[in-house]
Design a protein that fits this description.
Blueprint (H helix, E strand, L loop, with lengths): L1 H28 L29 E2 L11 E3 L2 E8 L4 E4 L5 E4 L2 E11 L5 E2 L6 E8 L5 E10 L4 H7 L8 E9 L10 E7 L7 E8 L3 E3 L1 H8 L17 E3 L2 E3 L5 H28 L1
Parallel strand pairs: 1-7, 9-12, 9-13
Antiparallel strand pairs: 2-5, 3-4, 3-10, 4-6, 5-6, 6-8, 8-9, 11-12, 14-15
EC number: 4.2.1.1
Keywords: Lyase, Membrane, Metal-binding, Transmembrane, Transmembrane helix, Zinc
Pfam family, one: Carb_anhydrase
Length: about 280
């Protein structure tokens, strides 16, 4: 009888553990762009850095410094391996393609899409944005952001658009693509330090947002929006960060102490002047 009770207790404990583990796994993995699991609650997810001070995306002001050169692209051909993961449509890239930037090599892992754009320029969204995700051999990430605007039909994107999978579906195709054909001719960029834009929103990501955009037709944009129309994280505070120019961070507020000191000196001189004038008046 005691053995039977012990077995029952053991079974109950095992069931409880399995159920608790399943619930934990669900809470750990499940997130969305709206509702209870939306961006406002991403900071509650295990390991999340969503409340950090260097989050992405951000608004890029019109006076942000522009890096005219600096990224060297070594993108090779790749078979199209495409997935609809429930959050975006992602293309996984074959090994061998990379960029050289700021003295370091970053391997192209994948690229994916957002609608509307996650970054804004002067407070305005673009219809879409592409993110090219790279990683160095020592684990550092660099992401290139590319704005997509309404315009002419884009044949370079067509080979990808033709293979859009349904949600939860993966496709390994014989179609050959080259990510370099998806980029604009000029590759000047805005550079800042940020994070991934999806949970766990890990910081320490180098962002390179291209200044020039690429055109897609209305139909191409609408085709993506049939799957995802609002898979963009809200704009995050820039806080005390600065944009980079030529590899050096340009912090506007770094000049604030100088102005504060000058202001204090001017006020002090003014006070001394009025004090001395008052003394002269008393002597008279």
């Amino acid at each position: 009888m005691k053995n039977l009770r012990g077995i029952i207790v053991l079974i109950v404990l095992l069931l409880f553990t399995v159920c608790a583990g399943a619930l934990y796994a669900d809470s750990e993995m499940h997130w969305s762009y709206s509702g209870e699991y939306g961006p406002q609650n991403w900071h509650k997810l295990p390991g999340s850095q969503a409340n950090g001070k260097k989050q992405s995306p951000i608004n890029i002001p019109s006076d942000a410094p522009i890096n005219e050169n600096g990224i060297k692209f070594f993108y090779m051909d790749s078979l199209l391996n495409i997935e609809n993961n429930g959050h975006t449509i992602k293309v996984s890239y074959e090994r061998g393609s990379y960029i050289l930037v700021e003295g370091k090599k970053y391997n192209l892992l994948q690229f994916h899409f957002h609608a509307p754009s996650e970054h804004t320029f002067s407070g305005e969204h673009f219809p879409m944005e592409t993110h090219f995700v790279h990683q160095s051999d020592d684990g550092e990430y660099a992401v290139i952001g590319l704005f997509l605007k309404k315009g002419e039909y884009n044949s370079a994107y067509a080979s990808i658009w033709e293979h859009f999978p349904e949600e939860g579906e993966k496709k390994e195709t014989d179609t050959v693509i080259n990510a370099k054909t998806l980029l604009p001719e000029r590759k000047s960029y805005y550079r800042y330090d940020g994070s991934f834009t999806t949970p766990p929103c890990t910081e320490g990501v180098k962002w390179f947002v291209l200044k020039d955009s690429v055109e897609l037709s209305d139909d191409q944009i609408s085709q993506f929006e049939k799957f995802y129309k609002s898979n963009n994280r809200p704009i995050q505070p820039f806080n005390r960060r600065g944009f980079y120019l030529g590899g050096e961070e340009q912090k506007k507020d770094s000049f604030l102490p100088v102005f504060v000191i000058i202001g204090i000196v001017i006020i002090a001189i003014g006070i001394m002047f009025f004090f001395m004038q008052g003394k002269k008046s008393e002597k008279r």
